[in-house]
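Contributing: when you submit paired examples, paste them exactly as shown. First protein:
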Amino acid sequence: MPVLAGAPLSYPTTNLPGMMSAHEVVAAYWAAAEARDWDAFGALCADDVVYRGPQTREQVRGREAYIRFNAEGFDYEWHVAVERIVGEGQHAASWTEFTAADGTMVGLCFFDLDDDGLISRITDFWPEPYELPASRAQLVERY
């Protein structure tokens, strides 16, 4: 499985999504998001893409609605840094750090690609840190 760790965000401008691996599609997705290049971002998504955010129970259906959600839905300065992407076949997952004025959040995002190599489903988790429960303290090593 290809892995990207600590590499600068970039995306190919000559390849069509159907000619890219799942890893490359997701790397291009995050690079386009960071660059606020909504045309490139949208070109990676299927017409009927579905975005789901389980914590907030948000769902967005369709490419145009999803582009608008990202372009207009965050009225503050933010940046995304990719820590790792793992992809194989029509599936990929990414670990990102999303930074805004009020701090940094870790995001885990799962992607499904359609037969044309476009992103058809995104499930986006933004886990908040929590303290280790006392019942597990003796079972783990802290770092």
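Second protein:
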Amino acid sequence: MKIAAIDIGSNAIRLLIEEIHLDGSSYYIEKVSLTRVPVRLGEDVFTKGKIGKEKMRQLVKTMRAFWYLMDVHHVEYFRACATSAMRESSNKKEVLDRVEKEANVSIEILSGDEEANLIFENSFVQNLNVANNYLYIDVGGGSTELTLIKHGKRIKGKSFEIGTVRMLNAAVSDELWEKAGRWIQSALEQDEKVVGIGTGGNINTIFKNQGKKMTEVLSYKELQEQYDLLRSYSYEQRITKLKLKPDRADVIIPACEIYLKIARYAGIQEILVPKIGLADGIILDIFNNWKKTQNLKVGAVAN
């Protein structure tokens, strides 16, 4: 069974297609295809308050292409979800209607809490060491989702309008940072040790550039070193010398700043960096809902 998730973010739009193989009481998830298009809807929304004609045209063409890709791959179920930029766009109804009419894709706008819940719903979280406390940090173009995990369970979560594209457009206030800091400090007990879990394309790139293996952690010191290194290069040099994509070479700086600042607020010294995100959570949510309709009891997960 093939399932697809379309993640319409503030910086990029992604189509993830995965195949789920059922075997009795267990299942195996195989990634089939991942396509990423840097439309950057937040560039319009966070400066003008709405999605402009050119970004709308790019979005429609991207959704049409995704529809054909899903058809070619024989996808049985899919869900298209939009996050921060679409949430705040004053012309979102016009945009959604046009996409549905011209690309045959119905887009669902997630609230901040719904986004955090879907990000949390993945097999990596289910297999965490229950003896540790974790702060799940997902940094996107328009928002950052924080989730506190204790004893393997989600204790509380919060979405903040702090994102990389917002920061590039000077749209994150000191007051908002103070609000995030207060939330983190109120969520944690005094001197409570917490391990970070960082997700998002930017921290995946940082992790890879640091030469890390999937079983290793990224230390706060190493994150700071990567930030200092990246800042020592110009935007053009990050592309030519560090081989970053143009739409990654600018947002990776504010992404580092977000992770570093949150780590300082929470006293985090180590960060786990699994290659998972919203799209993975969407697919698992579709699969779990499908299981309910089939009255299946499926357990162990393999990735």
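If you have annotations for the second protein, write them as plain sentences, like these:
DSSP finds 14 helices and twelve strands in the chain.
The chain has two domains: 2-111+279-302, 123-276.
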